[in-house]
Specification:
Elements (H helix, E strand, L loop, with lengths): L1 E5 L5 H4 L6 E3 L7 E4 L15 E4 L9 H6 L3 E3 L6 H16 L2 H9 L7 H8 L12 E5 L3 H12 L3 E5 L5 H6 L5 E3 L2 H7 L2 E4 L13 H6 L4 E5 L8 H10 L2 E6 L4 H4 L4 E3 L8 H21 L20 E8 L4 H11 L4 E9 L2 E8 L5 H8 L4 E7 L1
Parallel strand pairs: 1-2, 1-3, 3-4, 4-5, 6-7, 6-9, 7-8, 9-10, 10-11, 11-12
Antiparallel strand pairs: 13-15, 13-16, 14-15
Helix pairs in contact: 3-6
Length: 386
């Protein structure tokens, strides 16, 4: 029997995938934790905890370094909320192009008299805008969301430029042939009327839309940020808006300073706030946890490497989280050999400082072998898959 704990409300569409071998508990002392936005940075993790699944893409609320050192695999759900975010990005472009919000706000302030229709006809020109068809859109980051935005914008008649030096094979295959794939970020800055950012927040990307980047952009450019707040330098964007260099800044991240700056369109972090996105994220997260707990397989982890050996057909299977150091494989096989255990399949994957070994054996794995493996320097967690 496996146990799981939910730190946030998780969609029942996802939770119903748990079968009779799983039981929900009220405390974090569980085999697995499901989380959305709850801050886990100060949590004490039980030695029993094997994995955490974030029902969403960002994992800034999870202490990855602590988890890695304790052999806790952290999953996220890339692409599960991509369509919801994509639709909001498209809506953001339309709202920035046509003064829809201004028109609605003006109309709400008018008295509902009989001459209102005539008054509307006289005033509507002050809310006139531009169409997005035929305009150039630059997309920085061609992951699941970036690709969806690119294809949707191309279908709306936009000329789309995409930048991603690390584009995956899957993303490349999903990208419309009409998209211009550029290798120089300056090409997006200098050519595009609309620029949207879809990259993770890291030391390399923090504040990437800064004063220098904005200076290269067209006058009256529209910048959209539905990825991470820190990607856009706040001082730079506020100055550019006040000077009129940037026509509109559309963002899903509320800060007091940006919210009160003119020509901003700020939504209250609605990107993935759709019933469909929450269901998709929960379903993917639950399936990731189940595959790891039952089979030892890792998919979509942010701190350990992907490793998939399918369902175990041998008598035994052992999963080992360890540091990525020399001679580890030799030490693992030596322990099993000394116990007279024959290995049928051995998979070893590494990711930075950490690695993962999944081993199928012809016989059951005795407790003595587990204890001896735990004594090996660099081994963080050992688990027999039953």
């Amino acid at each position: 029997m496996y146990t799981y704990h939910c730190l946030n409300n998780i969609s029942s569409v996802g939770l119903r995938h748990f079968n009779e071998n799983y039981r929900q508990v009220d405390t974090p002392d569980a085999d697995a934790i499901l989380v959305r936005s709850a801050n886990m940075k100060e949590m004490e993790f039980s030695d029993n905890l094997k994995c955490i699944a974030r029902a969403g893409a960002g994992v800034n609320n999870i202490p990855l370094d602590v988890c890695s050192e304790k052999g806790i695999v952290v999953f996220n759900t890339p692409g599960a909320n991509a369509n919801g975010v994509k639709e909001l990005v498209i809506a953001g472009m339309l709202l920035a192009s046509r003064d829809i919000v201004g028109g609605i706000e003006w109309l709400e302030k008018q008295e509902t008299t009989e001459d209102l229709p005539k008054k509307v006809e006289k005033q509507k020109k002050q809310f006139a805008g531009n169409e997005i068809s035929g305009k150039k859109l630059g997309i920085i980051g061609l992951g699941a969301i970036g690709v969806m935005v690119a294809n949707a914008a191309a279908n709306l008649g936009m000329e789309v430029y995409g930048y991603d030096p690390f584009i995956s094979v899957q993303a490349a295959w999903s990208l419309s042939s009409h998209i211009h794939h550029v290798t120089d970020l300056d090409e997006i800055y200098t050519k595009c009327h609309y620029i949207t950012v879809h990259v993770p927040l890291s030391n390399e990307t923090r504040g990437m839309i800064d004063k220098n980047a904005i200076a290269k952009m067209k006058d009256n450019v529209v910048i959209l940020n539905f990825a991470r707040d820190g990607l856009v330098n706040e001082d730079a964007i506020v100055e550019a808006l006040e000077m009129g260099k940037v026509k509109k800044y559309v963002t899903d991240f509320v800060t007091p300073r940006v919210a009160k700056t003119r020509n901003t369109l700020v939504t209250p972090h609605l990107g993935a706030s759709t019933a469909e996105s929450e269901d998709n994220c929960a379903e993917m997260a639950v399936k990731e946890l189940m595959n790891y707990l039952q089979n030892g397989n890792i998919k979509n982890s942010v701190n350990y490497p992907d490793c998939d050996m399918g369902v175990c057909t041998s008598t035994g299977r052992i999963a080992i989280n360890h540091r990525n150091i020399p001679n580890m494989i030799a030490q693992l096989t030596k322990v099993l050999g000394e116990e007279g255990i024959n290995i049928t399949v051995f998979a070893n994957k590494c990711r930075g400082e950490y690695a993962y070994s999944l081993i199928d054996t012809e016989t059951e794995i005795p407790e003595m072998a587990v204890e001896d493996i735990l004594k090996i320097k660099g081994v963080l967690k050992v688990r027999v898959i039953k």
